[in-house]
Amino acid sequence: LIASSCATSHTDVVSRKNVDKSNPKGNLRGTKMDVSNMYNKFVESGVIKIVKTFDSIDEDEKQATSKSDVLNTINKMFQDTDRKSFIIYYSGHGRSPSKQYNRKGGDWVFEGTDNNGNKTAEFLGLNEIVFLWNNRKKTKTEQNLIIIADCCHSGAWVSSLEEMKAKDIYMQAACGDDEESQDGKYGGVFTLKYSKSCLW
Q: What are residue 160's DSSP bridge partners?
């Protein structure tokens, strides 16, 4: 479960401070609620083990969730050979597509710092997760990966998975390749609906 509410001044990040249309830029405010809603749904299932929850701000470390921490945790999770299925849920910003840079979009956004200590953005792409998945410890039993993303342009990852012909990776996206998901103080519209309707 990953929440990343950070916004940056980068033009390739779709960001909203809140649902107030007069101030559409800035940090998302519903990501913490999204993670809470999904956490409760997973616990209610009685069969889904939560490995790690990343909040927008790590209360122990007092710092923003980092891309490297997320990737390290995903990699460790994939090494569990006893598991039949894995679920990665993300709520946050989705990087917008760019024809100029031949980029599909939908990458997950995390707050980072440059060499001078200035805040910047780090982007986690589907290819990084797929690489870890394909290089995990192999098991005799079939394993599946489910990715659920409540972020703008998340449908781009669905298109990419179809192109990869990934047989054991499934994706549920909040919106299409060229669409934006909606945020609010009670959580993202997709996650609110999903957490109330999904069957586990």
A: none
The DSSP H or E segment spanning 164 is helix 155-164
The Cα 200–Cα 190 span in angstroms is 17
Amino acid making up residue 1:
L
pTM attached to this predicted model? 0.83
Contacts of 81 (CB under 8 A, 6+ apart): 137, 139
C-alpha–C-alpha distance, residues 135 and 43, integer Å: 29
Q: What is the pLDDT of residues 66-83, one digit of tens each?
A: 889 899 999 999 998 888
Distance of CA 143 to the CA centre of its chain: 20
Q: Residue 187 — left, alpha, or beta (φ > 0 → left; ψ -120 to 50 → alpha)?
A: left
Residues 132, 78: contact at Cβ < 8 Å? yes
Q: Residue 37 corresponds to which tokens in the numbers above?
A: 């809603």
CA distance 95 to 152: 7
Q: How far is CA 60 from the centre of its chain?
A: 21
